[in-house]
Amino acid sequence: MAAVRRLVMDVLKPHDPTLLSFTERVSETESVAGATTSLIELDQEVQNVKVTLEGEDIDVSAVEDTIEGLGGTVHSVDQVACGDRLVTDRRTLQDG
Amino acid sequence: MAAVRRLVMDVLKPHDPTLLSFTERVSETESVAGATTSLIELDQEVQNVKVTLEGEDIDVSAVEDTIEGLGGTVHSVDQVACGDRLVTDRRTLQDG
Amino acid sequence: MAAVRRLVMDVLKPHDPTLLSFTERVSETESVAGATTSLIELDQEVQNVKVTLEGEDIDVSAVEDTIEGLGGTVHSVDQVACGDRLVTDRRTLQDG
Amino acid sequence: MAAVRRLVMDVLKPHDPTLLSFTERVSETESVAGATTSLIELDQEVQNVKVTLEGEDIDVSAVEDTIEGLGGTVHSVDQVACGDRLVTDRRTLQDG
Amino acid sequence: MAAVRRLVMDVLKPHDPTLLSFTERVSETESVAGATTSLIELDQEVQNVKVTLEGEDIDVSAVEDTIEGLGGTVHSVDQVACGDRLVTDRRTLQDG
Amino acid sequence: MAAVRRLVMDVLKPHDPTLLSFTERVSETESVAGATTSLIELDQEVQNVKVTLEGEDIDVSAVEDTIEGLGGTVHSVDQVACGDRLVTDRRTLQDG
Amino acid sequence: MAAVRRLVMDVLKPHDPTLLSFTERVSETESVAGATTSLIELDQEVQNVKVTLEGEDIDVSAVEDTIEGLGGTVHSVDQVACGDRLVTDRRTLQDG
């Protein structure tokens, strides 16, 4: 199977655990070399966060298990990079 | 024949397989060194994704077979780079 | 536990201590390698500041203690980076 | 004669050959080190594409022959770089 | 005490001394490695300038003394960087 | 005399010679290391082009002779860089 | 005295001498390592130009003498960098 090198997800999570604990736990998932979370929006019930993960071969279902174990939901997967080479998405004339 | 070094496509795909499986499968196609997919838009039936591929000499019809085998359709080819040198598309005064 | 490598917070603080003293004190917190604060907005009572911290393994509760000891309140945690690799949040087609 | 180092053209081409075949053929033209094509717009009859070529001394009339042999028309030449040094067009205060 | 590595201030100053003399004098303050001033706005009475200072450990009260000795007023401190590492303020999804 | 290192001009030229021949000829002018031309606008009679030249010591009147010999007119000189060091024009708070 | 390392000025000058001669003469001023001028605007009487100078220790009054000797007027000094280190003006959240 091709190695998953980078993953960007849009996640909904409850306020508890905090964004800090959530990020620590996600980054501790086996196969994740680093995780960065950025707050998109928050309301009384949930936080909407952008999660960016990198690794040599990310075990995505383990990551999803971690997120769900923390009460979170993957709202959408926004970017996936696979293969031997980490390819950068470049802006083209067709991007909005 | 000139080597195809980079390819950017606009693809429509069903929700199943997921963007993750889709990207893994595309990146496993012989001749592809790496693949990155970015979600453009989704509705109830389909996902519209931008696919960026790099390789030393991409076998584009093999890639198209993979995409079609996964239920996807290439909506448009938005950028193609061929040759010994990978040429970057630079912004000019005529770009919109 | 995963190492916290970078932290961006939105903080409300009184005018006293000054932004300078506040930043010195936050950066002196054990585990913080450097701190940069940027003024977002100020009114008669409070300053709203963006705080960016980096370190090999930031002790976030010690940082929060420092901020609260200076009369400040963490209004929101806007970005957290954890893990062996410091992952950069990259713009995708889904960012607003 | 001065060496042509980079050329950017706005080209109209029929749908057949595809953008892929078109780019392969243009990049195979003697003197072309690499070619990148980007889709600007398409309608039922034609594709409007931006073609960027680089080489040590591009034989522009050979390139034009290739394009015309493929049914394409050079709508405008948008940028030309000649000489020993490849000079970058930099934005000035007079650019729109 | 933590070292102050960079400081950005919004300063109001009279027309005399000139921006040149003002900048020379500020940059001559003990502990300042370099100073750059940029004109924001001017009216008949005052100049509003952005002052950026760097040093290994800036003595901010000495800088303030210099500015006040030149008839200037620090209108606001807009950015402070302290610590062993000079941390860059990066744009997040929460920046306006 | 100080060496002219870079020159940006706004030029009006007839359609004949083509932008390609025009650029080749300008770049062949003694003292010019490289020339890049970018199309700004065209109407039935003339092409309006931005010409960027670099060299160790550009002979500007020779360049103007070349341009005029090709039927062109220098509409304005938009940027000139002279001296031992090639200084970059940086954006300031006063740029529009 | 602190060394002046970079200077950006907004200058009004007559059409004669040309921008080319003007820049050559300014860059020949003792202490100037390089000068770049950019056209901001022109009307029938005058040219409004942005002048950027760099040097190890620019003699600003000699530069002003050169400019005035050429019929020019310094309309405003927009940026001054002094000191051992050339400090870059970085964008902050308070910039307009």
UniProtKB/TrEMBL annotation, chains A, B, C, D, E, F, G:
<dbReference type="Pfam" id="PF02680">
    <property type="entry name" value="DUF211"/>
</dbReference>
<protein>
    <submittedName>
        <fullName>DUF211 domain-containing protein</fullName>
    </submittedName>
</protein>
<dbReference type="InterPro" id="IPR003831">
    <property type="entry name" value="DUF211"/>
</dbReference>
<dbReference type="InterPro" id="IPR023129">
    <property type="entry name" value="MTH889-like_dom_sf"/>
</dbReference>
